[in-house]
Each structure stands twice: as structure tokens, then as C-alpha cells.
Amino acid sequence: MPALYLVATPIGNLEDITFRAIRILRDEVHLIACEDTRQTQKLLHHYDIRKPLVSYHEHNEAARTAEILAALERGESVALVSDAGTPLVSDPGYRVVTAAIEHGFPVVPIPGASAALTALAASGLPTDEFRFIGFLPSKAGARRKALEELANETATVITYESPHRILEALADMAEILGTRRIAVARELTKIHEEFLRGTAQSIREQLAQRSAVKGEMTLLIGRSEKTAAIADPLAAIHRLEQEGRDRMEAIKAVAKQMGLPKRELYRLVTEQGSNPGGKDRD
Fold first, then answer.
1. Which end of the chain has fewer CB atoms < 10 Å from its terminal CB, N or C?
2. Cβ contacts of residue 261 below 8 Å, gap of 6+?
3. What are phi and psi of 234, to 5 degrees?
């Protein structure tokens, strides 16, 4: 049965592609839909793959989706690729995927490189919980609003940013997020791969000293220090309750020890239900 294959491509180094992806592109599909045919042709030429290409981007999604569905209905499998990385991750493709599903065609993911996960793994920031938000808004007001909404984020945030806006974005982050831990991954898997780690202000100062800031950017924001700080108090309260103290005694003890407001700790414990068996006391 014909299928729509979502094929992940390298994010820089052309060796970062799976054997399966090469086989699918070379042997299994009749047509390859891509953002920029010139960019994809470089990859295909490197692996001596000769297949028809058709452009698929945000400006022609509707028309191309119809063409791809027509190919599937003719019994021809189609591969969807992005310029770099995994299709649909901050790239076009949602429309054709949903259309293929609605028409009963298999949608087969071929996993591979992802700039977001590659940057996260080497960032030095917590990886147990993360949130990907795509690109930050390009306009200053919308960008600042988006950053304000991340003030109490409990997970590491991953976002993409263009080199010509990175200094402005870091300036807004320094003002709104303060000394949160930040990492900027530049030119991932390429010859000039670079990781900058520190605060938004310190990283901005490093980049501002350069004659030009170039390369693809993945920006990672560490979790809120306030959020991180309350994890241990909650655990401490839970331990005291397990030892036999009632909830309010445990909250008072931890609040005094750590210099935290009792009311705030009580709210957090109540919301998270840290010990269903604990007894409240007025």
C-alpha cells in the first residue's frame, strides 16, 4: 500500500542520516516533497539518490497537499523531508499528514536528527522534563509577552532563534528572566559547532563582542529557580509527614529551616497532594 513517509534528514553533518532513511528515499518512494529543492538535492547527490522533487512549503501547502494525495491515490509512495531535521517540527507538513490520515493512507515516521533534542542533550540543563515552543515571536512586544509567560516554567524550554534576532532576544530574557541558566547551541553538528552556557546577559555580552553573529541557533532556557527551589522543601515536608508529624507541623518546620513563607508552602503542598494521609490542623 502506498504511504507517506516522514523522513528526518541531517541538521548539518551529512553523515547524520539513518540507513533506513537512505533506503526509503532511494528505493521505496516515487516522489520527495521538500521545503527547498536545492537544499534537498545536495543531500540526494551526496548519497547518489535520483528521485523527482517537488517543493512543499508554507506558501503552497494547500496545492501541494492535493498533488501528494493524488500521487498516493495512484499507488505512489511519497517522502516528506524538511531542509534539516525532523519534518513538522517548526516546519510545514501538518496539512498533508492530516490529509493522508483522513484518506486512509499510512503515515510512516523515519526518525533521525532533531536540533531541539540534540541541543538539549548537550546543554547541561535538566532533561527530565522539557517544553519545545518553536520560534520565539519576531516582534519585541509579542516576544516579551511569551517570555513573561515562561517566568515560572517548571521545565527546560527549547526554542529556535535567528542569528539576527538573538541579541534582542537575550536582552529581553536578561530583563524578564534574570539569572536563569541559559544555553545557546550554534551550528549543531557542523564544523563550527558551539555551545554557550551561562546567563542571558553573559551570553549576550559574548556574542555582542563578535563582528557578526552567524549560524542556526537553538536556545534553551533553564527551569525557574523559584520552581527548582521548592522541590526540596516539598520532599522535606513529605518526609516529616511520613515520620508522624501532621501537615502543618511539617510545613512550619521546613519553612523555618529554609526561610520560606508558610502560606506558600501550604498552598504548594495542598495543590500537589504531597501526602494524602496527612492531617491538616488549624
1. C
2. 255
3. -65, -40
User: Among 257, 271, 183, which Cα is nearest to 227's?
Assistant: 271
Full pLDDT tens readout for the chain, 282 residues? 999 999 999 999 999 999 999 999 999 999 999 999 999 999 999 999 999 999 999 899 999 999 999 999 999 999 999 999 999 999 999 999 999 999 999 999 999 999 999 999 999 999 989 999 999 999 999 999 999 999 888 899 999 999 999 999 999 999 999 999 999 999 999 999 999 999 999 999 999 999 999 999 999 999 886 655 555 677 778 877 887 888 888 888 877 766 677 887 888 888 776 444 444 444
**253: helix, coil or strand?**
helix
Helix (H), strand (E) at residue 235: helix 225-242
Residues whose CB falls within 8 Å of the CB of residue 131, separated by 6 or more in sequence, listed in order: 153, 155, 156, 157, 158
Nearest residue to 111 via CA among 83, 84, 80, 85: 85
Sign of the dihedral defined by the CA atoms of residues 139, 142, 148, 153, in that order = negative
Q: 190 with 159: CB under 8 angstroms?
A: no
**Residue 41 — φ and ψ, nearest 5°?**
-65, -30
Report d(CA 36, CA 277) in Å as an integer: 59
**Cross-strand partners of 80:** 6, 33
**Which residues, 6 or more positions from 185, have their beta carbon under 8 angstroms from its beta carbon?**
115, 118, 119, 122, 123, 193, 194, 195, 217, 218, 219, 220
Residue 173: alpha-carbon gap to chain centroid: 17
Enter the C-alpha cell of residue 252: 512550619
Residue indicated by cell numbers 515516521: 109
Sign of torsion over alpha carbons 235, 237, 240, 246: negative
3-state secondary structure of 198: strand
In single-letter form, the type of residue at position 244 comes to G
